[in-house]
Amino acid sequence: MIKRSFLILFVISLAGCSFTTKPTEDGVQKQPKAPKMEPEALLSVLLPLHSKYSWIDDSDKETFIAKAGKVERYKTAMAATVEARGGEFLFSLPDGPSNAFKVLREVLNTLDAHAISKDEYPFETMDEIVGTIGDLNRDFEAAKAELFAIPEWKALERLITQKEAPTLEQVEALADDGELKKFTEPKADELATSLQEYAAKKKALLEARINLDVAASEAFFRYAMDMKFWIKAQPFKAHPSFWAAVRRQHEPLVQAFADFGAEPEAGLKALLPVHPNYAKTVEALAFYRQIQANGGFLTLGKRELKKGAKGQAVEELVQRLAQEGYWEGEIVEVFNQEVVDAVKAYQGTHGFNEDGLVEARHLASLNVPVETRIQQLELSLQRWRETEIRHEEPTYIRINIPEFKMEVWADQEMVLKNRVIVGNNRWDVDPDNQIEGRLNRTKLFTAELTVISINPRWHVPARIKKLELDYELLNDPTYFQKQNFVVKVLPDGREVMYQDSGDSNALGRVKFVFPNSFGIFMHDTNNKRIFDREIRAFSHGCIRLQDPFKVANFLLERLNDVSEARVNHFLAKEEPKDIRLKTPVPIFIEYNSAGVDDKGRGMFFADVYSYDKDYFAGKIPYSEEELQLLQRKIQKVD
Predict the structure, then answer these.
(1) 632 assigned to some structural domain
(2) Is the Cβ–Cβ distance between 343 and 358 less than 8 Å?
(3) Considering the domain boundaries, does residue 197 fall inside one?
């Protein structure tokens, strides 16, 4: 370009044009001025600049949106969230990370506390970009200042950065306006060099900001999935894979991101489980990890102990109880009343009857490695993240199968706790439906308690009649009559059987009805003895309550203004009485083998249905083969 300029000057000088130097008044000669560029020449300079750099003015959003649609991980959610905010950056400012990024990064530092693996989070990528983005921005600002210092840039910026190629008419309009009178070919070269540097620095900064937003978005999506949307421990609802969960949870995932974008702190907090037991379990996990860091539990010998015992075995027992917070003060070597009380407290949080004796099963529990307890607490956290409990409900019921307990919650506080009997784990047969398997396990589901029945009748399932009651009839032909069973034949020939109300009724005096597809309900029982057992899995799937009237009276008074005296009046009449609740009560049947008591101590229960074992063995979600081991079709049994 410069050579061509000199050639033009030379030709013009030969033609007698007035570009020769002239002396000034003081006798100093002026250098000849470079000629201004004609519109055609200027256009020839602008066209290649436009083809290279037309993107620099408005490319941030467009480039971001385009890249968001091409990322491999979370592709659909990423594209949706970037488009929803018009390609605006969320996690970066031109000179560094935004507040949204800082809030997210701080929360991600707590993953270990929640027993969430960090392996799938792009920490290295995010931290590397954050470490360089400030320098990239300073380089960009310096290049920008240099470019913007060129006077002609302001006039030419629009033509270079517009989407359509500049035209001769546009260039002539600028020339007519006098904006480019001093623009020469050397100036054009200077502008091209400066523009190239500016574009390179802008591109580097833009790529860094896009990469940070993509990585941080991936981190958010992973956190939202881990904390709320990925079901992997519920035996029969677990997603088949993580990415299947992402696809199924697309809409709530996108909404969670929108909530986070609007209010980062509130958006992340909304992903945390709200039930108070979750936060307590996080604290318990930290406590047991500290025990592990300190060397783990003291291993006890096999000697059984009781009040009055003395010696090293007692001293070691007390030391072991102190490790989990069941003993404070000096270590003693006499099994006194204080030791009895500490043992009872331990028994109460580990599914044992509280008798104060230290027998073989208690020693086995005390010798479970701390690593196993940590695993149980980590799984408990996962189950709390998956819980269907709506803690904001004014009244709800929670049943925890491994604990063999039910809880009534009112106004976010637990107000009642009751021992329960749940479904047994035996292999059983249902000849009418032609299936066999672990048919009596109490199912895990959510329903609404709608009716409390006083003096209920028990409508006997055909399976129980055929496989159990008919055998009683063979032994005693008067069995049905003695037990108040009534058999009726319907017009279509089908036989139905129910047990009338009364003290011999298997449902006892009260039944809690929550319609569901499993035919499960809660009820009283005429057999209270087995509530003293530590493992209480004896029913055909329904849930028996040790003290159902405390529950019934509380709910009826709270929801229907029906007093205890009124309930007793209905009972005395010995006639079936259904009371429909004015407000249905949610009921949540769950499986969580670990928990925390009101003093913050870990609670550990029996894995009665082996769902823990199957989870740790990688069998959940169950394959078709595994499901066949739980239930399968059989030939018709007469």
Answers:
(1) no
(2) yes
(3) yes
Alpha carbon distance 314, 305 (integer Å): 7
Question: Would you state the pLDDT for residue 628?
Answer: 84
Domain finish residue from 342, 368, 394: 368
Q: What is the mean pLDDT of residues 367-389?
A: 99
Looking at 254, 269, 284, which one is the last position of a domain? 269
pLDDT at residue number 636: 59
d(CA 85, CA 371): 46
- Say how many domains are in the chain: 3
Sign of CA dihedral 400, 406, 411, 413: negative
CA angle 402, 405, 409 (to 5 degrees): 125
Q: Which residues have a Cβ under 8 Å from the Cβ of 389 and sit 6 or more positions away?
A: 275, 396, 398, 586, 588, 590
> For 274-283, what is the mean pLDDT?
98
What's the chain's average pLDDT? 90
For residues 196 and 317, what is the distance between their CA atoms, to the nearest angstrom? 77
Alpha-carbon Rg for the chain in angstroms: 39
Q: Are 622 and 422 in contact (CB under 8 A)?
A: no
Cα first-last separation, the chain: 102
Enclosing domain of residue 89: 36-269
Residue 307: Cβ-neighbour burial (10 angstroms; 0-12, 13-18, 19+): middle
**Pair 7, 152 in one domain:** no
pLDDT of residue 10: 33
**CA gap 94, 48 in Å, rounded:** 28
Predicted TM-score (pTM) of the model is 0.87
β-strand pairing of 413-423 with 405-410 = antiparallel
State residue 482's pLDDT score. 79
